[in-house]
Amino acid sequence: MNPVESPVPHGRDSALLSLVSVLDGARAGQGGALLLRGEPGLGKTMLLAYAAGHAPDFLVLASRGVEPEAALPWAGLHRLLRPLAHRLPELPPGQAAALREVLDGEVGDGVGCRLPAALLALLDLLAQDGPVLVCVDDADLLDEPSREALAFAARRLGDAAPSAARLGDGSLTMPRPEARTAPDTGGGGAVVLLAMRDDDELPPPGLPVLLLSPLDETACAAVIDDVAPVAVAEGVRLRLAAAAAGNPQAAAELVAALDDDQLRGIRPLPDPLPPSPGLRRAHLRRVLALPEQTRRLLLIAAAEADMDANLLVRAADAAGIEVAALEPAERAGLLRVSVAGVEFRHPLVPAAIYHAAPLAGRRAAHALLAGVLDPGRHPVRRAWHRAAAGLAPDHELAAELEMAAAAARGRGGYAVASAAYERAAELSTGDDGAKARLLAAAARDAWHAGRSVRARDLLDRALPVAPGAAARGELELLRGDIDLRDGRAADAYEALLAAAQRLIPVDPELAIRAMMRAGEAGVYAGDHGRFVQVAAQAAALRGPGRSAQATVMLDYLDALSAIFLGRFDAALRPLRAVLDGAPRFDDPSALIWASIAAMILGDNAQGRVMAGRAVAAARGRGAVTMVPKALEFSAYAEFWTGRHAAATANALEGLRAATETGQGNGACHHLAALALLDAIHGDEETCRLRARTALDRAGLNGLGLPAALSTWALAFLDLSLGRHADAAGRLRGLARAGPGQGHMAVAALSVPTYVEAAVRTGAADAARAAFGTFERWAHSTSSPDNLALAARCRALLSEGAQAEEHFRDALELHAAGDRAFERARTELLYGSLLRRLRRRTQARTELRSALESFERLHADRWAHWTRAELRATGESARPRAEVADGELTPQQRQIARHAAQGATNREIAEQLFLSPRTVEHHLGNIFAKLGIRSRVELTKLLP
């Protein structure tokens, strides 16, 4: 697949405006000129093509500089003028003769000084018939006489241009109030567009300039969507956009290097991503034109990722080169040298320099850097360079790298540690066991650094040489853990259980951890039978010699197994043991177990505290792969305690973190949680978008938990829209769904939603049957929130005075809990009952309280129903608080904040994982709520 340029020059609005302006000027008879400058691959060629495509009424003359002809005088002008030979006789004889000599290839002495004026006269002649556009790409590769002649003509066409003004995307343009104007003969003006690299060594020709800067991430993502042959998965798009570093050609070449399954996210991306060959060649061409001493210093700089100013001076001294030798490279626009150190203008530049150098040159650069680095301050970097300088295995050097890797890991530098362990394995002179141990360490740290593909590659190298059950079991445990986060849950379960069986005889403690992970895979799949099986196997490993952490894991397995078997009372003791024991370990996983235990017990506030600690612990350790999971349970805890805005923020952050670290299953969980929050807030379009996306991913990998959450979200949305039969039907299906499609816990938690929907459709008997299990669980937890929901369900399943009594019980229990949204829903249902009983005064009291809560929580659909009930009591519902005081829903506040900061709809959509159309819909509602008409007013309102 060849890279294809984007048909739309994304992110170049101000540049396009300048091009259109100069073309319009030519149509009005004005001459003009622009010089497009920028790094290779930033889209200069595309902008020239855009200009030509928007000039159908122009005579378009196109040419480009060709490196082999750069030394041939007048070669560039010859290519441009050849199609115009038949017009030369119309010029004055002297000018015609000068241009004829160029076409004949026999330019005599003295003719060169007449050629620029002759070229300008020819353009004026052509413009008498209509506007003319001259596009010359790669003008820096033209022969010098041709370049000077074109620059002369361009300057005259764009004469009297004042100083440059910077536009919004970093482009520079220069207005032309006194630009050269063609005679008023019904013709047009001539425009010259030149494109060249951003190279300080070439003197600016005094032309109006469009300086192209790298695209932002959103524009780069749009390029990827344009050139990709299939729909690109969100996580893949984000990673490619980041790797392209704002260069559209790099983005296109990255897409071209991947197959369709990789672009869709079905197969993992290579790690590292493939290089961009076209850009590498472009940068290397500039490097090869530099002096030898400059190239040597560039290679040394390219071999060290953290080249600071002091190290640069020491390295130059050691090489016997003056630091000033880098000046030609600075003038060529390859890098910047400052007090802070060396900064290459594009990440592909050092890669091009390094890989183009011969092996001996690279080894010499590494040896020099190893000699000047302080072993006390930079042990990892020094050991790394020593390793790169050698080829043969070296036991002492491998040991040095291993020690340096361990030190880096202790500081949370997992990416550095992984690379050091991998190189130590390559240099090790030990047996296969030593190599496998080092590769296993490299894989583990790559996983902690968020590089799941790299971790898998390292595991593939380690497994064949791993000796013994303990080594293989540990590697299989890590493989299963990675699959659990970004693979099929059933496959992860099998791999983790196999690892546990291998580890039981040699390392029972690690076997328990593998079983814990296998149980987690069963939970994610919604396969509770498998969880019960693995919990039973783990119970056999319980004993007096087990560590405190292993005991907590065994208690957790026992507790959830009892719940899945319907023995809620039997789960209470082990759940409390987990809640007491897990927080003693400053370990993100243990704190997540504690959070889950607390929420099952109904102590949602403690669950929120434990989840928050898990997030902090994961971040503190630098274990980026643990952050999305910790944020997942933090979002759940915030949700259960009624903090919907915080839950939304955590889920959005977790979604981005999961996507960036290649954890597709984690991203799926966060999308499902966001869909449920959208349903509560009545955001129908966003809810459906996120729920369907999560359901698609869940179906691909057999993830029952997010599938169930998404189904619940859609059912709750149906309930809020008055589609009670649809809601009941979804939840009936959820209760019957098997592994990979449903989840027992979510089915149980959604029972109050089902009871309400079923009762409203006349299916009270079905609702009563479903309620039994929920009621037993609620009473086992003694949670006032859970008991309140049980009392509300009893009220809905009762009539008359008995229903009233159950509603009053529910409201008393809600008062002791912290789920304000559910309390408001109970008030709405109770108020509706009182209204139907014609006790309007009492009904209004309940309904007013419910409305206040719904408006505060931005539950718009439920506020709508509450106002309708109030009107039915004879009370005129007061205006919405949002309209009066400008309050917005959490989602609307996020969109409004981004819009006020100048983000486009597409940019906001990328940030919040929405569609641009959904963002546009929300902005319309935001403007209506705030009583404004434009983004300008929004900026003033939300500084």
Automatic annotation (TrEMBL):
SMART domains attached here?
AAA, HTH_LUXR
Q: Does the keyword RNA-binding apply?
A: no
What the entry lists under InterPro entries is as follows: AAA+_ATPase, AAA_16, P-loop_NTPase, Sig_transdc_resp-reg_C-effctor, Tscrpt_reg_LuxR_C, WH-like_DNA-bd_sf
Q: Which GO terms describe its biological process?
A: regulation of DNA-templated transcription
Instruction: Mention one GO molecular function.
Output: adenylate cyclase activity
- Record's keyword annotation contains ATP-binding: yes
Domain HTH luxR-type: start-end pairs = 881-943
Taxonomy, superkingdom? Bacteria
UniProt-recorded name of the protein: Helix-turn-helix transcriptional regulator
Q: Which organism is it from?
A: Catellatospora bangladeshensis
Origin organism lineage: Bacteria, Bacillati, Actinomycetota, Actinomycetes, Micromonosporales
